[in-house]
Amino acid sequence: MVIMSENPIRSVSDTALWVAIYRAMESDRPDAIFKDPHARRLAGERGEAIVERLPKGRKLAWPMIVRTAVMDEIILRLTRDGGVRTVVNLAAGLDTRPYRLPLPPAVRWLHVDFPDMVAYVRDALRQETPVCALEYVPADLREPAERAAVFDRADAAGGTALAVAEGLLIYLKPEQVDALGRDLAARRSFRYWLIDLASPDMLRMLRKTWEPHLAAGNAPMLFAPAEGTGFFNASGWREAEYRSIWTEALRLKRTMKGAWLFNLLSRLMPASRRAAMARMSGMVLLERAAQGSDGVP
After folding, report:
1. Is residue 55 part of a domain?
2. Tens digits of per-residue pLDDT, 54-66?
3. Sign of the C-alpha dihedral, residues 169, 173, 177, 180?
4. pLDDT digit string (tens) for 123-174?
């Protein structure tokens, strides 16, 4: 039995345990839209306890499940048909895509996170065989020098690279997100950057539900730019694809209880309001902006 303090979240790394349980919950379904056979073991009893202790811990599983499924689709498309040869998973947590997705064997995958998290995942999966060329990279991405070393490794491989930041940006300050974007855009290898993005309205809703617990665990939710994907233009990125959590949840049949009524009522809203609500939260594929002859956006 896991004995927990009053607050279920101790640090931002605990959010990986939390989300892994959501992947396990989906994997247990007979109609699962993805399977992660390692998620429950990686999350352990502590992950289960976090979901049970957080307000609406199980009720709000669906957006995280949809996020994972849609990002899976985009990653597979880009690695199979989009020319991506290297994937750099930033703050990868307990992600197991190199083991569970049918990625091309030639893909090079860099799993990047804090040293203790990397050591935990690598040890837990040591008996498993990845489907592609997997490298575990311990690094604190908040440190410019360590971030540069990670990106050096991606550049060294040559070819087109995709950066993945799932569940990361919301925990960063705007200036940290901007610095990360500029560092990625400055590298010739990175053509794509896959993220999830919340609007200010969504951030307020999430804070109302979870902020006391996340803040007490030194993991406050911070980033939700009012300008949406336009925030990334200054750092050299443009929106290539936006997938609304709500729209994708309807497509994948993973919606909240009572979604049908909300969907019905939304038809009575002005078109501008419906459009804004579709952008409350989503998965975004960013593409590096057009470059000059010197390779710099």
Report:
1. no
2. 888 888 899 999 9
3. negative
4. 999 999 999 999 999 999 999 999 999 999 999 888 999 999 999 999 999 9
pLDDT at 261: 63
The number of beta carbons lying within 10 Å of the beta carbon of residue 277 is 17
175 burial (CB, 10 Å; 0-12 / 13-18 / 19+) is: exposed
Of 104, 113, 228, 114, give the one whose Cα is nearest residue 165: 113
Query: Per the domain annotation, does 216 fall within a domain?
Result: yes
What's the whole-number mean pLDDT along residues 228-255? 95
How far, in Å, are 9, 53, 171, 177, 199 from residue 215 at the CA level?
A: 9, 15, 10, 19, 19
What pTM was estimated for this model as a whole? 0.90
d(CA 83, CA 91): 23
Instruction: Render pLDDT for 22-33 as a digit per residue (tens, 0 to 9).
Output: 999 999 999 999
Instruction: Report the Cα–Cα distance between both ends of the chain, in Å, rounded.
Output: 53
Question: How many independent structural domains does the chain possess?
Answer: 1
**48 found inside a domain:** no
Contact call for residues 198 and 209 (beta carbons, < 8 A): no
| Closest listed residue to residue 108, CA positions, set 140, 91, 84 | 84
- Please report whether residue 185 resides in a domain: yes
The span from the CA of 24 to the CA of 16, in Å, is 12
Could you say which DSSP state residue 173 is in? Answer: -
List the CATH number of the domain containing 284: 3.40.50.150
pLDDT average, residue stretch 232-242: 98
DSSP state of 138: E
Q: Which domain holds residue 94?
A: 65-288
Q: Are residues 106 and 29 in contact, defined by beta-carbon separation less than 8 angstroms? A: no
Q: 34 and 135 in contact (C-beta within 8 Å)?
A: no
